[in-house]
Amino acid sequence: MADKSKNGVANLNEAIRQSLILVLAGGRGSRLKNLTDTEAKPAVPFAGKFRIIDFALSNCVNSGMRRVGVLTQYRAHNLIQHVQRGWGSFRAEFDEFVEVWPAQQQTAAESWYSGTADAVYQNIDLIESHHPKYVVILGGDHIYKQDYSVMLDHHITSGAQVTVACLEVPVAEAREFGVMDVDEQDQIVKFLEKPQTPPELPNRPGWALASMGIYIFDHELLVEQLERDALLEDSSHDFGKDLIPYLVPKVKVMAHRFSHSCVGLDGKKEPYWRDVGTLDAYWEANMDLTHVTPELDLYDPKWPIWTYQVQRPAAKFVFNDDSRRGYAVDSLVSAGCVVSGSAVERSLLFTDVRVNSYSFVSDSVILSHADIGRKCTLIKCIVGPNTVIPDGMVIGKDPQLDAQRFYRTEGGVTLVTQEHIDKLK
């Protein structure tokens, strides 16, 4: 339990009850190409049965934080529906909720969200109605397991007014992040947004401290700074670009190292955190789950990942003849799938996928309700939801042909959607 803090909070449980979490879930995720044509990045399916946002929401619930607002904007219908169906079971009389807060153009400018800080600013009235002492702000589009209560405890006991969750990354990768320069106590002395020469950690040369886009603010300071920033015409109204750099020299802003609150670290060299914002990163993160010992443990009953899913029958594998045998090895096969006389290797099949006879699927991510025809070969593919692969189609053997017909990434992953298939007819 935390000691009595500067805010008069007697213990960590009380601090948790006085916290409000805001999940920023309005991002488009355009680098995921066709996968985000119809839904926001946080709603993109992941790991067979989940959606990306389930990881942030599960972290909230498992951390004991059950006052959560989900801020949506881009193509929000599927996301809203998922949150309502999967996360609507909390008891309002206990002041517990996971609510969707859609963009409503609530300011005089009547504009959509122009930045992360503006998204929060446009919801100030809702925030105030819950009377929080602390406001936790995080994105809904990353894959990781974190105990936010540990970060909150650090925020209180350190006497910070703002705390930023940080990840140690190689300097070459740090150029894509907000980077922090810290003193011996991890107080932030400089915050640099995507610097060309990131400051290295003194105790770990070649590595830098990057922002994870997760912040804890004292409520009064947050409101004051959002109102100040909203009046600035030259501001991009973003936490990383504007508010945090402004506050670093003025108030106590602490860095919280992810390794201190990462769940499931268990002696691993680096804590698990993934931005699956590109097709290659999305494919790699899903493929990791097919390994004997994945970096991300989804089987830990102490920190479950919750979701909404339609009830479907168990996966089914049929035919065991020399000419056709239905099997899957080194793979994840979700409920409702039927592997009929086909071979599936090192792949991940989402709900209700069908793989028909004499086909071979390898190193692929097959999203829900896809139907792989007879005598098909799919190697290193991402197949979009509801996509029907015609009989006899071969994908993954001829890079030039794949690039002409579908979308092929720099990493050699071929994205196939029903839109691509229709254009071939």
TrEMBL record:
Q: Which GO terms describe its biological process?
A: glycogen biosynthetic process
- A Pfam family: Hexapep_GlmU
Keywords from UniProt, A to Z, are:
ATP-binding, Carbohydrate metabolism, Glycogen biosynthesis, Glycogen metabolism, Nucleotide-binding, Nucleotidyltransferase, Transferase
Which residues does the annotation say bind alpha-D-glucose 1-phosphate?
Answer: Y113, G178, E193, K194, S211
Molecular function GO terms recorded? ATP binding; glucose-1-phosphate adenylyltransferase activity
Per the UniProt record, which residue ranges are transmembrane?
A: none
Q: Where is the Nucleotidyl transferase domain?
A: 22-290
Q: Which PANTHER family match?
A: GLUCOSE-1-PHOSPHATE ADENYLYLTRANSFERASE, GLUCOSE-1-PHOSPHATE ADENYLYLTRANSFERASE-RELATED
Protein name as annotated: Glucose-1-phosphate adenylyltransferase
- Which lineage do the record's taxonomy fields give for this organism? Bacteria, Pseudomonadati, Pseudomonadota, Magnetococcia, Magnetococcales
Tell me what gene encodes this: glgC
